[in-house]
Amino acid sequence: MRGSRVPASTTDQRLLDSRGSTEWLHTDPWRVMRIQSEFVEGFGALAELGPAVSVFGSARTEPGTPFYELGTEVGRALVDAGYAVITGGGPGAMEAANRGAIEAGGASVGLGIELPFEQGLNEHVNLGVNFRYFFARKTMFVKYARGFIVLPGGFGTLDELFEAVTLVQTRKVTSFPIVLMGTDYWGGLFDWLRGAVLEAGTVSARDIDLLHLTDDVDEAVRIVVRADEEVTARPPE
Question: What pTM does this model have?
Fold first, then answer.
């Protein structure tokens, strides 16, 4: 920098001056540091978790409902099969899966997100990490999971579901199973995919086959275990 572009103060001076504006805390370069810290915290917390499965589902699922009970059964069955359970750490279906994991004596992970509502991790989480950024949180869901089980849910669940299947379909991740629980709930989605979407040629039948649909918790867990064993037995490329 020369001429009028030379700053009137040095970088050190501005760093050490407590009287200046704090607006710099909210600039993009500082956000990069915050993003980096979220990845470091997440990697550090989950690196030694062991085999795990991410479970998605609606925060609006009420305790005592069939969908909540389904989530509890899924969490319990995954722990019995040797997996930790990872959820978004919120209420509803996420709480249900965490509760099932805790009741089975397993690792119950909650990856929370800063929102203007739905704050805090549910009481059934025994390892929790809170995130500011969705993309950092989503990385943890994928990196430390051997599979996904998707309970009935809304936009957030659909976002997580389709991000997962896109990563598998594009081979951005090692292939892992994606199981949707609830044939009545998800059946219409499968009809749409196999009908209008497949007929339009925007997906292939093989893409749709990446998704498994069942009402049976034991079958869902078997799908995860079988795929996990296949990946483990596969020779390195």
Answer: 0.87
